[in-house]
Design brief:
This protein has 284 residues and is an alpha/beta fold. It is built from 7 helices and 13 strands. InterPro entries: NagB/RpiA_transferase-like, Ribose5P_isomerase_type_A.
Length: 284
């Protein structure tokens, strides 16, 4: 549109240039309206998802974090922010949970614990975790989870494995019948940097699909995890029936694989914040 106008400006008759000017203004305002609308839709969606996450997180904390919870494992991601907020309210506003120690599962969750001035623990001193609360990228009907969308799966699985009870909090977009129904970015797998190519080929030969190295958005090259490793996202074949327990065990045994984002038989309950302001609880 602009190029011919610029080239022809001197040749345009006054009335024609006015017509073109009006047309351009119309186009710009239409484009602006479309952009504003899509921006507003995105904002509305984010507000809706955030309120679903907050609701799930607060409900789970209120039902599960009691005076008997001495060691609380804290997961990672955007939903866990609301978990820590609620725990901090209980500690600092209500004067409750005086013996609580929080064990983080990532750099982010450590920062959240510190920012809210909650007592920070670690697995060296607090290896028996009473309760672990975390988010998930997808939860299927058998409570198999995909985790690691935020890149923190290895420490998350370690802390979760030390917990008596694992509770998942998520918004309604994370619930599905089969893995891959909602979450299309694949199963995150943490790998040693020198092994990502053989690991990629082994997974693809064993189970099909495609395993890709996760690259950073604001840095050239791959994402580096909190543990200094690479991440692969394995896009499995959505139509194929997988035994996730077997897949998890087999992939975990490939030399160079440090952990998978498949959490099988770990979660006891999942709290989903729904779009209508209710909470749906899924049991194991
Ligand atoms: O596994 C995770 C981080 O690695 C998160 O729990 C998962 O990605 C869900 O995140 P969010 O609460 O932001 O949706």
């Amino acid at each position: 549109m602009l190029k011919p106008l610029r080239l022809c400006r001197g040749l345009l008759q006054p009335h024609l240039s006015q017509v073109v000017g009006v047309r351009i203004k119309y186009l710009i305002s239409t484009q602006a309206t479309i952009l504003t609308r899509s921006f507003c839709d995105k904002m509305d969606n984010k507000i809706l998802l955030d309120s679903a996450k907050r609701l799930a997180a607060r409900t789970a904390v209120d039902q599960w974090v009691t005076e008997d919870t001495k060691v609380l494992g804290i997961g990672s991601g955007s939903t866990v922010v609301f978990v820590v907020e609620r725990v901090a309210e209980r500690v600092w506003k209500d004067g409750a949970l005086s013996e609580l120690i929080c064990v983080p599962s990532s750099f982010q969750s450590r920062q959240l614990i510190l920012d809210h001035n909650l007592p920070l623990g670690d697995l060296d001193r607090n290896y028996k975790v009473d309760l672990y609360i975390d988010g998930a990228d997808e939860v299927d009907s058998s409570m198999v989870l995909i985790k690691g969308g935020g890149g923190c799966l290895m420490q998350e699985k370690i802390v979760a494995s030390c917990a008596k009870t694992v509770i998942i909090v998520a918004d309604y977009t994370k619930q599905s019948l089969r893995l891959g129904e909602q979450w299309c970015k694949g199963i995150p797998i943490e790998v040693s940097s020198m092994a990502y190519v053989p690991v990629k080929h082994k997974i693809e030969e064993l189970y099909g699909g495609e395993a890709q190295l996760r690259t950073a958005l604001n840095k050239a090259g791959p994402i580096v995890t909190d543990n200094g490793n690479f991440l692969m996202d394995w896009r499995f074949v959505a139509q194929r029936e997988y035994d996730w327990d077997e897949v998890n065990r087999t992939i975990s045994m490939i030399p160079g694989v440090l952990e998978t984002g498949l959490f099988v038989n770990m979660a006891a309950k999942c709290y989903f914040g729904m779009a209508n302001g209710t909470v749906k609880v899924q049991n194991k």
